[in-house]
Hints:
Radius of gyration: 31 Å
Bound molecules: adenosine-5'-diphosphate, magnesium ion
Amino acid sequence: MATLSTPLVDVVGGRTATALDKAFEMRTVRDLLAHYPRRMAERGELTELSSLQVDEEVTVVADVLSATVHNRPGGQPRLEVVVGDGRARLHLVFFGKKGVYANKNQLQPGSRGLFSGKVGLFNTKRQLVHPDYLLLRGDIPDELEADVYAGRLIPVYPATQAVRTWTISRAVQQALAMLDLVPDPLTAELRGRHKLLSSDTALRAMHQPDDYGHWQAARKRLAWDEALGVQLALAQRRFASSANPATPRPARSGGLLDAFDAQLPFTLTTGQREIGDLLGRELAAPHPMHRLLQGEVGSGKTIVALRAMLQAVDSGAQAALLAPTEVLAAQHARTIESLLGPLAQRGRLGGSDAATRVTLLTGSLPTAARRAALLEAASGEAGIVVGTHALIQEHVQFAELGLVVVDEQHRFGVEQRDALRSKAEQPPHVLVMTATPIPRTVAMTVFGDLETSTLSELPAGRAPITTSVVPAREKPAWLERAWSRIREEVAAGRQAYIVCPRIGVDVSDCEADMIDVVDDGETERRPPLAVVDILPMLADGPLHGLRLAPLHGRLTPEEKDRTMTEFAAGRIDVLVATTVIEVGVDVPNATVMAVLDADRFGVSQLHQLRGRIGRGGHAGLCLLVTDARADAPARERLDAVAATTDGFELARLDVEQRREGDVLGAAQSGRRRRLRLLSLLRDEDLIASARAEAVDIVAADPTLASHPLLAAQVAALVDDEQAEFLEKT
Ligand code: ADP
Ligand code: MG
């Protein structure tokens, strides 16, 4: 008999074991059984051949329609087999004398089989060259088939050239036949509550289900195990971090925060107030705060963060604010300084007695300024230090770092956050902010080690943003109209952004993603529009006479900073920019945005971009200019962005369209990935219930001492590269 830990060689023999190890790094029965079928083919049902993609490794069920040997004089014979699913056809090609005749004998018209290979294209026909195959002989008793494919459902495994799906099937069958009852890490009570199969049943049914429903039930149970493993690991992390000591940073009445609140030019929204109170309490606690603040663009996260920072300063500590770009760091420093007014002018003329100082520290500061900034951080003179990654370089010292705020977390690695946290004697409190709405499931997994708060309401008096798709080729008049709308806004004293996908300094970087433009049936290729090309065209053409300036990543930090300052001061009318403005840029007087080649941008990215306008009291207008045809998928995406301003809905759409691998990062890449079944989209409810169970389990038994099997699952998840994944928020 065998257990999950039995080496494969003891179960399937040396040759197969070696092949499985080589192809999939499988060593134990557990590894093999965790190689789940990609799908179940129905014996009676053929694969839809028309859906096959070129270059895909496929296994299809199809009927042989014809098999013909072609002999070229002097050349090698070639066997052409056509298989079909009743509608579409697929060609199989074999070369070489020996193979040709042997295969022709096997592949009799009328027989049905599984065919495996890589889809190629020859003369517009899709074909498999030298595919491997396994014939399903119906009534003819074929020993192999009778064993492996006894059921109605045929498992189709992820396979390679060397190890085909039926080899895996056979190995799985041998393993299952020898396998002892698999112990269950979940209690019968919990299983009953969530209607889950036992581990043993699920593992067997995953490979050899009675029917489709049985297979689905098995998938559910095994996906549950994955979700629970992740959630237990995260719950343990939250538990451990909340058990760490931290210096409490309580509010002080009559301090900076009170003075600041008294001079605020607007009333806080309910959300800002409530989350502010919560942060205030967490800062005062003797354990580190570890919180994610998400909120729509323009929901006013900066004020919330600033108020928390002021509380930290009031208690005698410093606060650091990390931004993903220099433009944003500089803007934050400016905004914070102007919001604070005299409260930020410590030791300067007109500064209040209670005042502190805001210091900007970025990588590109001139040496003298940099040295001064470093000194202010180290001496504690600066209560608030704003910066980019430069802040976390080794030699930056803080006198007493109490709170770290990380803005726009999706641009930031956790290693960086951790490096910053290690700047203090005791871990500081951490607040992470993101404007990219994170779908609930992603928040629960990728960000699952943080507690989450959401600012869902926008400050009152926000004018709405209207978004329109401008199909430039189909409706040139609309494009004309777009330019005149920009002129009208500028004439009314407002400002505009024009966003391009590319800087345009060098063309070589874009050859790969040329745009096909179809015009009267003629296809023309061009690179995506670039800032450096578009700006002069606009300046000499439709936007003649307006004050235009470029902003992109190739400018020096001083140039960028100067441009942003000028734009904020209203001395530039139109900023022609790349996505450097995507994140956080806040100029309330900007009311129009035209995104050129808008189809080049992702859904969430467009939503972020348009969050730059309509931030003051004036209505915003976002124009998504595109050459994509009305029936192209890209147009559907743009229409979706135009149709809703609900960031969460759009984020969901984005996750749907990107491969989930991109969202989960490391966890989904690599051969030995542990999350095989869990889908962030489909399994929202499942993840939520697993999370709730995990919280209860960890609360009652933080080390999982009484749940050795669960502890082992978590350990397996956490070693591998998974530790890295959990870190990589
Ligand atoms: P985001 O959440 O996108 O970072 P910001 O913090 O930049 O948003 O705030 C957007 C704008 O709204 C800023 O100009 C800010 O001063 C303003 N703001 C913030 N809170 C309020 C409020 N309660 N009432 C009015 N305006 C506010
Ligand atoms: Mg912001």
